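Subject: sequence -> structure tokens, single chain

Hey, anyone have a minute? Need the predicted structure for the following. Not urgent.
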Amino acid sequence: MKAVLLYEYGGPDKLRYENTDVPEYGDNEVLVRVRATSVNPVDYKIRSGAARARMPVDFPGILGRDLAGEVVEVGLSVTGFSKGMRVMALANGTYAECTVAKADVLAPIPDALSFEQAAALPLVTTTGAQLIERAVKISRGQTVLVTGALGSVGRTAIHVAHKHGARVLAGVREREREEASRLPVVDGVVAIDNEEEISTLRDLDAIADTVDGPTIQKLMKTIREGGVVGSVLGKPDGADHYKIRVEALMAQPDASRLYELADDVARGEFSIPIARVMKLAEIQEAHRLAENGGTKGKIILVP
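Reply:
Had a minute. Here:
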């Protein structure tokens, strides 16, 4: 089969599209033909070596977390999945024509979604949902500010917080205000690069942070005592200076929740924009585009 292999840390040029063996699957695993995957920031952080402390690569490695494809073979202990079934998952090694996933991380793809649409969802929707439900632990009536609201994780976090009955503020750059105002279910838009607007925020119950850096450091003062900052980027610097709870999150596969979120997308309740669909063989260019931030939406890869 064809796959993208990484032999050493470095830039996009270190990604090699070449022949390799079809992976073997175990009793509790499923061999899936990958019909689509996508590029996520964690992919180029792993590729560059920036994430090696948390996620080292056993070279040669195959990157990729989003899986949308068809079941090819199932292990002896696997039930509920049959050959040809359309499945999706937060998995590993998806920059390939085939990959292996544990049966318990696989979810059916809703009929209304294409493979490309499904491939945009697993990592970002799982992360956004867990940011709200496991890190922030939002309650009905609370006010939460979601930073990076136009990103894929941010869009999901807004959707999930609203469904839990929260008052949701979308945190974006000043130039993104108009676009953010068109997001469904937001109760307000805040320009988080505007000091004057930040000064008007008080006693927030929570911040669901997807941007980190100087922005969250300025925003933590707006959280009420006993409130919470949930982050997908680790504990923010300076958090210890405030009487708040800090919850750093690394998303874990959750097949049933993934299906629910995909079904919400299929029904039009929220969306994850797709910027481009590219061939897996174009992986180097796909990483360059994604890493430079030149696209609004996800880059989907098809073998």
